[in-house]
Design goal:
The complex is a heterodimer of chains A (542) and B (87). Chain A has 542 residues and is an all-alpha fold. Chain A has one domain: Sodium/glucose cotransporter, CATH 1.20.1730.10. Chain A contains 23 helices and three strands. A three-stranded antiparallel beta sheet of chain A has the order 1-2-3, with helices on one face. In chain A, strand 1 and strand 2 form a beta hairpin. In chain A, helix 8 packs across helix 13. Chain A is globular. With 87 residues, chain B is mostly helical. Chain B has one domain. Chain B has three helices and two strands. The chains are: A mainly alpha (542), B mainly alpha (87). At the A-B interface, helix 5, helix 9, helix 10 and helix 13 of A face helix 1, strand 2 and helix 2 of B.
Amino acid sequence: MIPAIIVFLYLAIVLYIGIFAFRRGRVSGEDYFLASRSLGGVVFLFSLFGTNMTAFAILGSSGLAYTRGVGVYGLLAASSSFVIPFTLLVIGTRLWGHGRRFGHMTPVQFFRDRWECSTIGTAIFVLTAAMLVPYIVIGVMGGGATLEALSAVAGVGGVGAGGAGSWVSYEVGGAIVALVVMGYVFFGGMRGTAWVNTFQTLLFLAFGAMAFVLLGKELGGFDEVMARLAADPRTASLLSRERIPQAEFFSYFFIPLSSIMFPHISIMCLTARRIDAFRKTVVLYPVCILLVWLPSVYLGVVAAGEFPGLAPGESDDVLLRLLTEHTGVWLAGVLGAAIMACVMASDSQILALCTMFSEDIFAYYGGKKRFGDAAQVWTGRLFVVVITLVAYLVAMAAKDRVGIFELAIRFAFSGYAALSPVMIAALFWRRSTKWGALAAVVWIAATVAGTWYLHEVTAAIAPRPGEPPVPIVPALGGALLRSAGGVTVFGMLPVVPMLAGSAVLVWLVSLATRPPSRATVDRFFPGTVPGERGRAGLKTAG
Amino acid sequence: MDVRGWKRGGVGFVGLWAVMIALRQDPLFANDPGLLLGVLPAGLAYQAGYSVLAMLVMWGLVLVAWPQELRSLEPVEARDTAADSRE
């Protein structure tokens, strides 16, 4: 009971932070949705990192390390520690600059302005918004499941057992988390969300380190644990990358390209007060990843020795199991609050969706002009309530089908990563066109749907974890395979062909179609001298 | 920045990506089950070192590839104040 009380105390604090931010705010769209573009360097770093540090990063990484070993760090964290800060430096700063100069508040506004397009901008809105919804639903699901696990009565329920042994049910837990998130997003907008994320990140970094040390002591020292794992033939392979094929490992490098394309991350890039805020973030981001992921992956492997034989679905809560079984109730409570901080990362996704709706739909189609700035803010707030309520109802209805949303998130990662060539073309290529962007968007939507379809129809032939992949179309040999995790193309994740196809389509279709007017291109590329080919193309268009 | 500058930067970035992808593949310790100091698996230590390298690379990029042209964009308050004074 004590862990759950500490978690409730934590929830009250974050709600208060949101209300405090509300009292500091002004009634304007730019203030509610972007905190008046006023975030300083420290808040910018921790809120951006906290927004990216989802339940998947913490609970999912330890669950994956439980089954696939220490290679999981290289798979996801090592690539993120290079790719995410790189994209923040190259793409994030430019988005910030255009936001400052032209007042953009969402990526779709930027695309519409850059390519003089309306309907294609709406198509990009539909694709990015649709891929964001599963995250919000899974945030509510994760909140309900975590509160249920933390309130389990000792000796009756236990982590993962839930239901009868817990005094907070999944439904009530989900409702509490949804209400708290809705509360501070509703009142605090971007300022409240950024402050809460900063608080959550600091909490996790501080107590995560403490938990790691205490768990090591409780387990008799990590050297003992590692020696036991190395000596056991069933777990020795977890200490190397033996369980992750080379091609799959390589292809995971491109997944973090999705980060900058997530609407909540690209919108957050617009909130920095000065360009210098990016400097600290870019340099310190890899360190933050190291501090959070290394213990998570390491403890996932440690858990394989402590709780052998868990099924893939059950292994997601090994971190919670370690905490509740090997630490005192007070520490378990504090760490439960820290884990809750990650689970509640859906706050910025809800806010991003509401910002996009308010700016890309409501304001774009005349609502702001007709009803004013204050009405736009209240429309955004109303949208926060509606989207949270819908997410809660879906999370309750699909309680036993969490796998569907996890799958949707995996496909969404690939989809957002494949959108990155569209952003790069818009920012750096004068000759890029809206038709090139549309071709990439259609390709991404089709390949996400196609991969999902292939995943579902091949479920019956899917090998078990540890078994070799099987060909989906035998005539194609190893081109299309079904592994335990999903469909692969030449052993790689579908993100690789999706990304390549998107880049080629943006390039070819842009060259074949008319570019935006010279005036528009010059607005976005002031002071650059176009090459002869680019100049000729732009002259004919202008 | 002129076109030559863009192209030089682009080639540099592609080269950097190729090196970072190759280093992450870890040809040395990927399948080594040995433990560093008896606690840290060698492959995990290598990848943790990769994150430290990424930090150093970012530090270098901030020094040599920082978008200086964006520094001239002032904060919103300053912009509002300037607009007010014009009125």
